[in-house]
Design a protein that fits this description.
By secondary structure, this protein is an alpha+beta fold. Helix content is about 15%, strand content about 35%.
């Protein structure tokens, strides 16, 4: 039992397991895509806490004279800290209160890659148009402020996990006026406590 009553798992145990049970010979059976998606769904419904100690925004120089801003923090599930689960928020240093992208980042051993889940895009620089794989009510619709809800996108299978196919977007359920309101919304859709304590990005020219 560690600080704040959280338990850390041993080794490299992740939220999404590589295997799903054993066959009649006792050999571990690789998880199917549906089983992986079910594990992610269960994780989304579980109680989660954001771990912020020692975490802050990181800056990466980019061509064009601005910096990319990244905030990545681990997440505990039901009081247990596991590898491969974090929140990630990115934006640009020169664009205050806009072009913010946020998601839960989940490492999926079966595909040896991270899955970006419950992605939210607030005041992005570009719009998104759904293709024909979206539900009828959202098909071919174009969105600016948007989120890519997991339950809508799991129909895309492994392509949704790898984000190699166009994702299905929908409008944010309510207007978001500033970064603090965005954090409140992220805490809700991710089901993560403590998101509202994330500090403001170090945008250029912002008066604190």
């Amino acid at each position: 039992m560690g600080k704040d009553g959280l338990r850390a798992t041993a080794g490299c145990e992740t939220v999404v397991a590589r295997h799903h049970g054993q066959d009649e010979r006792g050999v571990r059976v690789p998880a199917t895509i549906d089983q992986i998606l079910d594990q992610i769904d269960a994780m989304l419904r579980a109680k989660k806490d954001l771990l912020l100690e020692g975490i802050d925004w990181q800056k990466r120089p980019r061509a064009g004279g601005f910096e990319a801003l990244d905030f990545v923090a681990p997440v505990a599930v039901d009081g247990v800290v596991r590898n491969g689960l974090s929140v990630r928020i990115t934006c640009r240093s020169d664009l205050c209160d806009c072009d913010v992208h946020a998601h839960l980042q989940i490492y999926v051993p079966a595909i040896s890659a991270d899955a970006n889940v419950q992605r939210v895009e607030w005041r992005p620089n570009s719009r998104h148009t759904n293709d024909g794989k979206a539900p009828a009510a959202l098909r071919f619709k174009t969105f600016t402020d948007r989120w890519h809800e997991f339950s809508l996108n799991r129909r895309l299978g492994i392509g949704a996990l790898r984000q190699t196919v166009p994702m299905i977007a929908q409008d944010l359920p309510r207007p978001i006026a500033d970064f603090n309101e965005l954090l409140e919304f992220l805490g809700e859709v991710w089901n993560v406590e403590g998101v509202v304590r994330i500090p403001q990005p170090p945008w250029e020219g912002r008066i604190i």
